[in-house]
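Please decode residue identities from the backbone states below.
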């Protein structure tokens, strides 16, 4: 990609979703009067509808990481922050994209997307939370809706179409560049001026959310200092500084504000360390393998949580290298210390399946599921049953799992396999349709459901179920058409 194209993406994204300039302001984080104006342009219902559309678009075109453990962790951390935010008007959902460029962004409907590289660059959980708190504040303050209100001369749906291209560009630069046009070129300067004020507001509020949630406020300037240092010694700054510029005043302002807050001495959670080493081991590049080895060497000399994460990280590395015997040795050691830990159980499942011992995984997970209700354990048990050639047992779990977590693609992928093994062709088509719908492929989903309906007895309950789902998806198509035209 040329420098000019990169600059265009960076400038446009920065205009809508950037993270820069922490300026001193009043301490209240309630919506200002302009928030009412935003409501006149775009309702909360419309924001949720647009968010649903773009989540499906991202699933279908961006490398989202559907990892039950990581999804559970980032959403748990995110909800802890949301619980300490004000002016929350939408549910929040947090997603992880497999991208080694440091970045994060938020968009309509309470959706926050983190690049996997954030875990490599953040030293502790408070630093990661500082990025998330800022993005949450973009949503609670309705910055995109307020930008649309400020630019009333532009048709709102023109903004919607441009936003789709921008989100895609951030998640998948090549595809996004093909989609990005000059839609916003004529009014870009006005947008930039407006969103710089938004960014100052989001920084201020994000820092307050961070502090109220029990994290260290110093983490925000500490992370900015890391970015500044990296820029100083490299010819190309991190992507986050292309999309989130770092003015000279920002670091000093962030430090000054954080210095006025309590500075607790905190230790990152055990889950943060597990998530960090898991992402680096399973989703990192070959270049990052050396960095992970250095990190694990350091953790082996650290505190108790770091030492445990080091052993876990080594086991994951062995598993990824298909050195299952070595991985089994380490995960057995871990389970002897914490037999119900879902991070260890998930790894043990993969190792047992790699060793062609799925029944051992079934035994381990069945015992664990009796003591705790955890979706990570449930989906692993369904997979272990599938590998053990016990599809009927897997089906029982997946019926419940897909009911409780209908937006999890993993559940539907497993359901496709299980129903196929059982010869349940129409139910397999239904499961395929659910996965297609999550990826925004509504036409294909409706065709799969129509095939299922056509093979059922006329008027049967099964046919009624398929037809009802077709009606739901057609309604979604009708709602989403305006955004596709945009």
């Amino acid at each position: 990609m040329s420098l000019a194209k990169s600059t265009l993406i960076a400038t446009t994204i920065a205009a809508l979703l950037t993270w820069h300039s922490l300026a001193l302001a009043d301490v209240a984080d309630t919506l200002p009067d302009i928030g009412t104006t935003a409501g006149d342009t775009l309702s909360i219902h419309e924001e949720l509808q647009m968010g649903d559309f773009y989540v499906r678009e991202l699933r279908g075109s961006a490398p989202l990481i559907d990892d039950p453990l990581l999804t559970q962790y980032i959403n748990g951390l995110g909800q802890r922050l949301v619980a300490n935010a004000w002016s929350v008007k939408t549910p929040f959902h947090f997603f992880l994209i497999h991208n080694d460029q440091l970045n994060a962004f938020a968009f309509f409907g309470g959706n926050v997307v983190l690049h996997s590289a954030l875990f490599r660059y953040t030293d502790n959980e408070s630093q990661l939370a500082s990025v998330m708190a800022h993005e949450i504040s973009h949503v609670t303050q309705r910055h995109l809706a307020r930008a649309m209100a400020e630019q009333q001369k532009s048709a709102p749906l023109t903004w919607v179409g441009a936003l789709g291209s921008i989100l895609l560009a951030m998640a998948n630069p090549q595809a996004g560049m093909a989609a990005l046009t000059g839609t916003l070129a004529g009014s870009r300067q006005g947008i930039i001026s407006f969103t710089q004020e938004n960014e100052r507001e989001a920084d201020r509020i994000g820092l307050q959310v961070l502090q109220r949630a029990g994290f260290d406020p110093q983490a925000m300037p500490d992370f900015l200092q890391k970015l500044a240092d990296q820029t100083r010694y490299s010819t190309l700054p991190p992507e986050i500084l292309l999309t989130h510029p770092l003015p000279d005043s920002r670091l000093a302002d962030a430090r000054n504000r954080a210095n006025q807050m309590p500075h607790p001495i905190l230790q990152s959670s055990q889950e943060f360390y597990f998530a960090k080493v898991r992402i680096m081991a399973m989703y990192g590049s070959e270049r990052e393998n050396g960095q992970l080895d250095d990190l694990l060497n350091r953790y082996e000399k650290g505190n108790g949580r770091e030492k445990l994460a080091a052993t876990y990280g080594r086991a994951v590395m062995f598993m990824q290298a298909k050195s299952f015997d070595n991985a089994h040795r380490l995960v057995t050691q871990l389970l002897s210390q914490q037999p119900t830990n879902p991070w260890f159980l998930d790894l043990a499942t993969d190792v047992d399946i790699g060793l062609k011992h799925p029944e051992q995984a079934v035994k381990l997970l069945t015992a664990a599921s009796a003591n705790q209700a955890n979706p990570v354990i449930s989906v692993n048990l369904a997979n272990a049953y599938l590998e053990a050639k016990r599809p009927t047992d897997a089906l029982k779990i997946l019926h419940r799992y897909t009911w409780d977590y209908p937006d999890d693609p993993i559940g539907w992928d497993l359901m496709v396999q299980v129903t196929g093994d059982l010869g349940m062709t129409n139910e397999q088509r239904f499961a395929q349709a659910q996965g297609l719908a999550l990826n925004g492929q509504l036409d294909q989903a409706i065709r799969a459901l129509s095939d299922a309906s056509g093979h059922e007895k006329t008027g049967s309950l099964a046919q009624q179920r398929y037809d009802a789902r077709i009606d739901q998806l057609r309604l979604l198509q009708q709602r989403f058409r305006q955004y596709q035209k945009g």
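Observation: The first strand starts at residue 93 and ends at 97.
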